[in-house]
Amino acid sequence: MRLRQAIVAALQDEMRSDPSVMIMGEDVAVAGGPFKTSEGLLEEFGPNRVRDTPISEMAFTGAGVGAAIAGLKPVVEIMFMEFLGVALDQLVTGAAKMRYLSKGQVSVPLVVRASVGSGSGFGSQHSQTLENWVTSTPGLTVATVSTPQTAYGIMRAAVRDPGPTIVLEPRALYAVRGPVERGESGILRLGKALIARPGSALTIVAMGQTVTTSLAAVEQSGIDAEVIDLLTLAPWDRETVLESVARTGRLVVVEEAPESGGWGSEIVAAVTRELFSSLAAAPFRITAPNAPVPYNRELEARFLPQPSEIARQLTSYLATDSVPAPWWVAEGIHHD
């Protein structure tokens, strides 16, 4: 399946098994979704369960919160992650706090899906990942996907979760093909990372499309690196990451987002705190520069950490046991 088809399959299987699951968002019904991630669902489940909405993210996200409290399991699609900005209050002040404010009496089994990331030529206003908008809110689970199988497994797990869950979908991966095991055995566990590649020389923690670029970089460099697909950002899998770094002695986090405020800072801080005395070298992050995502194809490709740049930094890191400068500093373009 393509990754977008795996998302359709996950929603289809959950809707078949649970009549309380419904979908709402802009163009999700008649058009089958702007990225065809709900294709065919209207025909099978009808307009009561697959609903096109007005162009008002605040309104239909709020409707999703209310529907979840009332007993349904709504899946709300945000076409581009940036559009979630006008509906953040519904999530961070509403959905994320209901269980706490009600002393556990009210649950909000809501899923919010959003396409994210660069690589598709959508320009600076439609190419960000913006996971830092939501990862710092207690009460929200934040997950992402990297392959068709993880898309299927994470989506089904998100729909079944009793609390509000945000699933970030790298749109550059929607067309990627891969095997998908459907059914109960294909469902993944939120909060649990996957080892995408075992290794012993160093640990790479990645998510979304940086899993693919990290694996390509390891192949190019010939380094025996362990690559962890984090999958869930909040809560992230401390046990898997710490166990890996305890074995390898080195940590590199690869992020698509700009350097400032990145999710990898939390992981580097935790590893440094827990494993400082046993580290062979300082942990560090490979990120995008602190700049808007360019529209120009060549510049956009430069923005996202490419396999060659990741391989360069990994090779230098292992050879010197010191943190290499990012390309924009090494080339004298910009100094932070």
Automatic annotation (TrEMBL):
Keywords: Oxidoreductase, Thiamine pyrophosphate. Residues 1-176 form the Transketolase-like pyrimidine-binding domain. It comes from the Bacteria. InterPro entries: THDP-binding (IPR029061), Transketo_C/PFOR_II (IPR009014), Transketolase-like_Pyr-bd (IPR005475), Transketolase_C (IPR033248). Its cofactor is thiamine diphosphate. This is Transketolase C-terminal domain-containing protein. It comes from Antiquaquibacter soli.
